Amino acid sequence: MSNEELKNxxxxxISFNLIEQMNQDHHAASEIYHASKFWEKLNQLNVEWLKKDxxxxxxxxxxxxxxxxxxxxxxxxxxxxxQFYFHNIARHPDKLLKLFTSNVGEMFHRTYVSTNTKVSxxxxxxxxxxxLFLYEYVRAQDKFGIFEKLEEPNIGNPIFIEINGKHIxxxxxxxxxxxxxxxxxxxxxxSDVKTIAEIGGGxxxxxxxxxxxxxxxxxxxxxxxxxxxxxxxxxxxxxVFPEAKIMDYRNFTHFSExxxxxxxxxxxxxxxxxxxxxxxxxxxLLINVSSLQEMSREQINYYYELVNEKAKxxxxxxxxxxxxxxxxxxxxxIIYPTKPTWExxxxxxxxxxxxxxxxxxxIK
Length: 364
Known about the structure:
364 residues, two-stranded antiparallel sheet
């Protein structure tokens, strides 16, 4: 789809009143929850892109400021999965043909590091190969026999390749890799996880997967983020799960105001400061992927206190070392104030994004 077609298809009539309301409520909350300078800049850019290109194209725009990556052959994550793919190619000759048949179409996209919204044939091919390599890696590690049944929803206009008639993106592969690691690490305890919250969940790629796979088991998803991410997630999860019982975002000062709807809903939307209002121990599993490092040290410490109070398990996936020039912050992995009473359930360097560590703690 061309840039001009994207503009013509954008939702010009969409109301951004909800973003404005979220922003007002967010800024009225304690400063400890306010966005860093890094995210203030990105959020302003994200709103501009949403207005320009429409919500229906967000997987090519604002999503590239979440956990969706542009790719070169020098990217560590590309080399990791490429090595795996070629190591297995001798035993599976059909993989050789896939190198030539895997392609993406016109690849309009936006990133905050470049104003170029189009890419060359070679760049598109490298991106397509990455999607293929990543898919094959995740499929080979799948202990639950679920991954081959999944595909990326078309809502949001994702960049994808087609495998066995299914649309495959980075997001569906990365989300399943995270899901599988959490589920296998928790073992039998996973069945006890009924309320899952995600801080900084972006548009809800991982929340989508948890709800898709466990919506019939009484599992509740609580998605927590800043605007406009919370707004995008709000729109997206309504679109992909039109029949779901959803507690829309609203401002409240006491949990009792929303307790009944919260308990009856399978998906709930909160701003960060509203975590404080949840009763202690409400969350069976609290998830954070790649956003703690974008906070000040004071904020990181504060969020860990909330994890300690509100959650029973905590899954974290962060950069081993993060340099934030906007806020003049360097965040090494050692900075995270894990409580001495917490039990390490599992920990590793992520096998694809090896610049990230991930860990699961049981909160005691």
